[in-house]
Amino acid sequence: MEDIMKNGSTHDDTWSVFRIMSEFVDGFETLRALHPAVSIFGSSTLTDKSKYYTLAREIARRLSDAGFAVITGGGPGIMEAANSGAQEGISKSVGLNIEIPHEQKPNKCQDLSLSFRYFFARKVMFVKYASAFVIMPGGFGTLDELFEMLTLIQTEKIFEFPVVLVGTDFWGGLIDWLLSAPVRAGTLAKDDMKIFSLTDDPKEVVRIIKDGYEKVRRSKAI
Questions:
Q1: Do 158 and 78 form a contact (C-beta atoms < 8 A)?
Q2: Which residue in 50, 105, 194, 210 has a CA-CA distance of 20 to 30 Å to 155?
C-alpha cells in the first residue's frame, strides 16, 4: 500500500502532495522529448533462462531499431530484458523505477532512469509517453497495468494505441475466461476484445505497433 493511503497525520498528507508534485515534474521534464516510445510490462522474477526473457529482449531490440524508445519499470526480469534489448538497438532505453521494500532493484541497462515513490505517478509516465503497450507474462502488477491500459482505451481517455499481449500459452486462459464469463454475461462487449492483440512473433509485435502508431498519427493530423 502506498504511503499516501496509510494512516498518518494531516501534516504528513500535506508533505505527500509536494512529493507527488515533484515526481510529476521530474517525469515530465525528463521524458517530454521522448517520442515515439513503447511501454513494455512483465514479470520481475523471470530470469534469462526463460523463453519470455529472450522474447522480450528481441522485441525490444526490434522496436528500438524501428525508432521506438522502450520504457519499462526499470527492475529485473522482463524489464531488464527489454531495457537490454533496447540498448542493443538505436533508440533510448528508459526505466521508471519504483521504491518498494522487496523485489525491485534497478537494472543497469537504462539510458534514462527515474525513481518513483508512488505507483500512480509512475503509471502516468508509462501512459503519457507511450504510443503502444507490450504485455509480457507477469503477476498482479502486470495484470494491473494491462487492465489499466485497456480501461483507458475503452473509455477513450487515451487514443486507441496498440496493446499487444505476448505469449499465447500464458494469456490464452485469461482470454478464454473473458469470452466465457464477462462477455457472455454482458459486462464486457465482444468488440472490447478487439482493443488488444495476441501473438508470439516479435516481427508481428513490431508490425502491429508500427501500423497502430501510424493510424493514430494520421487521425491526430485530421
A1: no
A2: 210
Contacts of 114 (CB under 8 A, 6+ apart): 26, 27, 30, 31, 74, 94, 95, 96, 97, 125
| CB contact at 8 A, 193 and 174 | no
Cα separation, 34 vs 108, in Å, equals 20
Q: Give Cα separations from 22 to 6, 8, 43, 111, 125 (angstroms).
A: 20, 20, 28, 21, 13
Dist CA 201 CA 207 (whole Å): 10
Domain containing residue 19: CATH number: 3.40.50.450
DSSP string for 102-138? SS----S--SEEEEES-HHHHHHHHHHT-SEEEE-S-
Phi first, then psi: what are they for 78, rounded to 5°? -60, -35
Beta bridge pairs of residue 198: 165
Which domain covers residue 162, as residue numbers? 3-221
User: Is the pLDDT assigned to residue 5 strictly greater than 80?
Assistant: no
If one counts the domains in the chain, the total is: 1
Count of alpha carbons within 13 angstroms of residue 176, beta-carbon side: 6
Q: What is the pLDDT of residues 168-195, one digit of tens each?
A: 999 999 999 999 999 999 999 999 999 9
Asked if 56 and 78 count as a contact pair (C-beta separation under 8 A), the reply is yes
Cα 138 to chain centroid distance, Å, stands at: 11
pTM of structure: 0.91
Q: Give me the numbers of helices (H) and strands (E) for the chain, helices first please.
A: 8, 7
